[in-house]
Amino acid sequence: MSTPQQSEPVIFNPFTPEFMEDPYPHYAELRRHVPVHEHPGGFWMLSRYEDVDALLRSGLSVEQRHVAPGPFRDAYTNAGVTDEPRLKGLALLDRDPSDHTRLRKLVSKAFTPRAINAMEPQIRSLVDDALDAIAEAGTVDLVEALAFPLPFTVISQMLGMPPTDNERLRLLSHTLMRSVEPTTDIEVMKAVEAADAELFALVGEAVSWKRDHPADDLLTALIAAEDNGDALTHDELVAQVAMLYVAGHETTVNLLSGGTLALLRNPDQLKLLRDTPDLIENAVEELLRYDAPVHNSRRVTLETYHVDGFEIPPGSFILANLAGANRDETFWGPDAEELRLERENARRHLAFGGGIHHCLGAALARIEGRVAIGELVRRFPALSLDGDVEWNGLLSLRGAARLPVRV
Ligand code: HEM
Questions:
Q1: CA nearest neighbour of 317 among 115, 72, 126
Q2: What's the complex ipTM?
Q3: Ligand 1: which atom is nearest the Cα of residue 249?
Q4: Which of 82, 106, 179, 401 could form a disulfide with 392 if both were Cys (CB 3.0 to 4.6 A apart)?
Q5: Helix (H) or strand (E) holding 188
Q6: Average pLDDT by consecutive 10-residue portion of the chain (407 residues)?
Q7: Which atom of ligand 1 is nearest to the CA of 292?
Q8: Rounded to the nearest whole angstrom, what is the distance from the C-alpha of residue 361 to the centroid of ligand 1?
């Protein structure tokens, strides 16, 4: 492992429209010059494949309450809001062992490969319906027409959520996404806290409704887990359901929109996929590598963390730059910044994280990606961009808010 050279100052400001448009040159600069970056905003960022992979497997904490006083923590104190809202603080994504071990075991019991594979026919039928509507419209915003409704409906159906105000849920969930990225904006913090409380109440009502209307679904299975002893408290149950709901669609929407955009911007690769439909499985892995739907994972150091010749002090908040690591030329080779659907080791991407928090929904996301992108390409030989992409303004869940296409 080489010791980084910090002689060239790198101005890394991820909060600009230009960064949103294309963050990859900035990630490349970080990797080359400051792979262990201490941001003035009070967080650290690692961006080399080797470092990010090691961090994810290191067993570092994910609990934000361990962050030491500093610009990042003080911003929350000054704003009078909690930096670990109720849902987030209780969801397994934000818990360390032994709570994480207990909750992951319970959720995995309900979220089985059988339950996931059983969704494929429904996914196919939802995709067919969406593509019929797209064919009829001719020009659409692909986010509204496919990338958002597919994963949102799939996770709602899997959970067996009662009919509810979907638009409201979508808005709350989107606001909550701000909580996974470092912010010192008081308005954003307050909005996150309010969304967290409202989502908690809405999902709590859905859980109560399901108690009276049990069925063969994920929510009923999770309620059974709560009823079978004291392994899961009511608040924990609500938090896991809300997390599945949010994680189940906010991420996959970026795979479907970002994956399609990457193909449209690389016509030779789009043609290759059209001519070789069997490539779809590897193509989805390469699309996940090329434009990771989740750009960063978060960790907190409880003691000094040694990386690449640096010492990161205890109580530091670290972003593991999954998207940058997925383009690291020292790991992937000189064509790391290119889309190559036939890349042999594409599956070694870090888009689903790693270590004990490795994505629980990876198998479901892969099916949704294969069916939606595979069918879109198959059915619409004239698929093309029909205007400018609008970005969602998120740092860690960076993706298209609007993707105009013509078929
Ligand atoms: C965790 C990415 C889809 C449920 C994660 C993590 C990443 C990730 C990077 C690890 C976070 C960390 O280490 O801190 C993705 C991507 C997806 C996707 C890129 C789509 C392309 C889904 C879906 C679901 C889901 C569809 C569920 C329906 C979860 C859960 C965790 C998780 C429950 C927490 C696991 C734990 O903490 O043990 N995901 N995800 N994800 N994901 Fe996904």
A1: 72
A2: 0.99
A3: 26
A4: 401
A5: helix 186-212
A6: 46 83 95 92 93 96 86 66 66 93 89 90 98 98 97 93 84 82 76 89 92 92 76 88 88 97 98 98 98 96 95 95 98 98 98 97 97 98 97 92 97
A7: 19
A8: 6
